[in-house]
Amino acid sequence: MFFGHISNVDKRQYPKAIQIALDYLKNTDFNQIEVGRYPIKENLIYVQVLDLETKPKNEIYPEVHRRYLDVQYLHSGKEKMGVAPDLGTNAIEMEYDCERDIQLYKDAECESTLIMQEGNFAVFFPEDVHRPACIDGEVSQIRKVVVKIAMSELEEK
C-alpha cells in the first residue's frame, strides 16, 4: 500500500502505470466530470468517478481485488478507510467475483484506520484489504475517484 497527497508526489518512486494514474488525478478537474467510468488505456487502466455518502464501518464489508490494483483518491469530503494485510484468515462474506474482480470479507483482522482528507490518495494492491467510505466523525458526501490498473501493467515491458 502507498499513501500520499496529490500535491506532493515524487513520481519516480512509483511504477510507470501508477505514475500515469497520479498524473491523471493531478491534472483533471473532477468538478467538471460526471459520475461514471472513463478509459485511460482501454480496460487496462480506467477511472471510476463516484459520488458517495460515508457509512458506519459495520455497514461496509472489507474488499480485495486480484487482477487490478486501486488508486483511490478523495477529491472532496472526508472519510475513514479500514486497511489491513490480507493474511488469508478473514471470513468470507462474498466469494471472489471474477467478472467484477472483487471479494468481500465479513471483517478484516489487524485492520488499521486511514484518515482521508481532500487530495489524499492510497494505492491498494491485491494483498491489501481495504474498507472505503467509512464515516469520519459525521456522515459526509464524498467524491471519490478510483483508478483501476491491471496488475499486468506493472510488469516490465
Determine the structural class based on helices, strands and strand pairing: mainly beta
Tell me the count of domains.
Answer: 1
- Taken as a percent bin, the fraction of beta residues is over 45%
Q: Spatial order of the strands in the main sheet?
A: 1-10-5-12-3-2
* Separation, N- and C-terminal Cα atoms: 23 Å
CATH domain topology:
Jelly Rolls
The count of DSSP E runs of length 2 or more, i.e. the number of strands, is 12
- What are the segments in which pLDDT stays under 50 over at least 5 consecutive residues? none
- Report the biggest beta sheet as strand number plus sense, adding barrel if it closes: 6 strands, antiparallel
Describe, in plain words, how this protein is organized in 3D:
It is a single chain. The chain has 157 residues and is mainly β. The chain has 1 helix and 12 strands. It is globular, with a radius of gyration of 15 Å.
Summary, kept brief:
The protein is mainly β and 157 residues long.
Throw out a few tags for this protein.
mainly beta, 157 residues, 1 helix, six-stranded antiparallel sheet
